[in-house]
Amino acid sequence: MHGRVKLKSTAQQEEEKRKEREKKLKIYVATRDACFNKRKEGAMDDEALQLTQQLLSANPDFATLWNYRREILMHLETVKEEDEVQKQFDAELVFLETCLRVNPKSYGCWYHRGWVCGRQPKPNWTRELSLCDECLARDDRNFHCWDYRRMVVKESGVPVDQELQFTDRLIGSNFSNYSSWHYRSTLLPLLHPQSPDLPVTCPKSSTNSPPNSPHTHSHRVCEEQLLKEYELVQNAFFTDPNDQSAWFYYRWLLGRAEREEMISCVYMSREGERVVVAFSRPAQAVGLMLLLDGKMQKVEWRSAPPSVRHSPVWICEFPPGTISDINNEHNLTVHWTEKYTKRECALYTGRAESWCRDTATDQELFRSELSVEKTSVLQSELQSCNQLMELEPENKWCLLTIILLMRALDPLGYEKETLAHFQKLKEVDSMRSSYYSDLCSKFMIENTILKMEYAEVRVFSISEKNLSTLCHLDQLLLVTHMNLCSNQLSRIPPQFSMLQCLEVLEVDDNLIESLDGLSNLPKLEELSLKNNQISKISQLEPLASCPKLTRLDLRGNPITKTDNIPAELSELLPSVTDLML
Amino acid sequence: MGTQVKDVVIKADAPNALLLDKHADYIAAYGLKKDDYEYTLSEYLRMSGIYWGLTVMDLMGQLHRMNTAEITEFIKSCQHECGGISASIGHDPHLLYTLSAVQILSLYDDVDAISVDKVVEYVKGLQQEDGSFAGDKWGEIDTRFSFCAVATLALLGKLDAINVDKAVEFVLSCMNFDGGFGCRPGSESHAGQIYCCTGFLSITGQLHQVNADLLGWWLCERQLPSGGLNGRPEKLPDVCYSWWVLASLKIIGRIHWIDKTKLSTFILACQDEETGGFADRPGDMVDPFHTLFGVAGLSLLGDEEVKVVNPVFCMPEEVIRRVGLHPELLG
Ligand SMILES: [Zn+2]
Predict the structure, then answer these.
(1) In total, how many domains does chain A have?
(2) B77, B93, B185, B259: which has the fewest C-beta neighbours closer than 10 Å?
(3) What is this model's ipTM?
(4) Which chain B residues touch A215 with a CB distance below 8 Å?
(5) Is the overall model pTM greater than 0.90, yes or no?
(6) DSSP string for residues in B34-86
(7) Per the CB < 8 Å rule, is B218 touching A64?
(8) Are residues A334 and A467 in the same domain?
(9) Which of A128, A158, A188 is the last residue of a domain?
């Protein structure tokens, strides 16, 4: 029950209402039973149509009665002349129209209407379209009607550009119409698709790729149309800067196609005789095949984090002695049979490890090279938004959009402004401050990855950035040293176990309570956890699976105040020789 | 012209504590007024009504107050020759009520009261070539029915009876520019539909296909100044949408993106102090549907007066564990 206000009434009013309801109940039950009885007897007559009509007028959600009517109509098709049948169907549509006027949100009515039209030899789709127009004029957000309209459009072959003009018209008369913007997002990619050849670094998708989601290439819009579209949206949010519809749409326009599924990195190490494979998106290892020096290797894959069906990172080990001899050279080929792709990696003599990968910058993961034209359009968009900010300094939508535009243009150059805008966002929209913290963390991590890759180092350092969450860890597979000090992290998430090369981790001055992700890290030697929230020995248990851990700094944690801790720790972590409490 | 934010105002004297005893009394009494007009009008969804009532009673530790034998008999009499289950006697079978019936029997640990094999056949028979599911033999397609199908089969331990890959493909084809999902390909995102689709992807182990950051943003933007959540942009807040949004956020690991204290205040304010039960909004009429989603929402928010609810099945977590299910949740 929705939107029924509870009214105060006197005892007398109550009594009157009770009597009235009793009367209505009697009629209703009698009619219902009559319907059910007739159906049991197999009656397919006008009386049955009348009785069901009576009940459905009052209660259009009574699905079984629509079913009964369909049975009757199908029966009449077989016994009546064609024009009589057409009349019968027309009468049904008239009845449905009155139902929809009273209950424009009834699933049953809309479905039945579509069924009736689909059944007619000559459905009048023009009339159906104007019915939709009328209905949307009363409520332009009615999703039942929108869906019905899409069905009519499809059945009657209305061209896509005509539908786009329809959204032009609706948006023109009322910018604040999320349904129209949504519809536009489905039409534009059909009319102006992004050329699939544009993202140069991505290999062609294979034949059995997943269905098109709005984030894959086929659902993105070509640049020329995109640039025009910015203008339309800008008009909308300048007219009403607090209407969220246009801002949501704008963020979609600023968004980018999702990465193709591919192998992004192969890493191999003599120590442990280990191979690590990273995918661009979470995948299963079932389709992976390893050829070492031309010979197929049977291995057991395990995911990082463990026991996940779809993971971006998979690990396996060769039998002892396969690649351990530093005097031997090895060539590894990883085939991903499902996607018909492969990746090669050579391990030379004298080298302890080797890898082959596309960097985040190669893949244009966090920022893309913009065309001159797009750069100038985005620059002027940024200027417009900055102007709007002056008029509406508290407008969160505008603030967030400015951040997104800055990221598209120059994420590193605008880092300081971005941080300041996030701070402001958390103040003006405090209900969503955790969202902004997480988003800001993500952007700062992306910037740090970019900086690391430009510097071509394996050190990832991001301190005093108020990080509240860790992400993109699959991009950090090769990192050996990590500094996360002075942030707001409360946990090391399970995905952290992807960092198979990590040797030193400093995470001082955070709020760490959980170390789930610090497990099975084969190279981790030093861990500094100063000034966190570790209070129980059980929180340190994951570390027991890191065989090389020798140095552990726990100073400034509540756990240091408990008795007998050194003894318990040396039992849990026998490899740690350098313990600071 | 500026958009007026559609929202409600919570009065200072609105309830701010959970009135568990009142709600239990309200639900226990609800099923007894069988000759009430309103009650009779809702016969077409009776099976779901019973699921709402029993689940909220279980969450409140009051399941024993309901008449197990009577309800089980009723469910048995609603299973049809085709295996499907109807909302009530005399009504036609449908996936919506088939799921409700299986949920109820799972609460009672008694799914064998009905013919499980026939239910599986029924669900299987409704899958279409494109992977979607019809709600019944009349062919209406909706991602809600995809959820009903996999939730029913998962509770029965028979998920492999259908073509799961195809089913996943269809649900993913309903994903939108905002990261949300609609009824069918091309349909606008809607919180109820998003709940069904994220729940579906959780049960089928495909949550990595969701754009969790984008969808999470849309979902947390459903929270209005009153603290309540709406189901789509520019709509009023509602206790049932609060559940659908909140459960979806829990499934994709982003529940901390909303203000929990404010939402809790809104949900509590939707209680009726006189009659017990929750309404869609403060001051409206209560019903079992919003009573379940009010209590379940508070459970997801961490209220320890009620049992822990599973965000995917909207049933007590202990029941889902007993069945042996571990639906995926993003971290
Ligand atoms: Zn509601």
Answers:
(1) 4
(2) B77
(3) 0.96
(4) 175, 211
(5) yes
(6) TT-HHHHHGGGGHHHHHHHHHHHHHHTT-GGGS-HHHHHHHHHHHB-TTS-BB
(7) no
(8) no
(9) A158
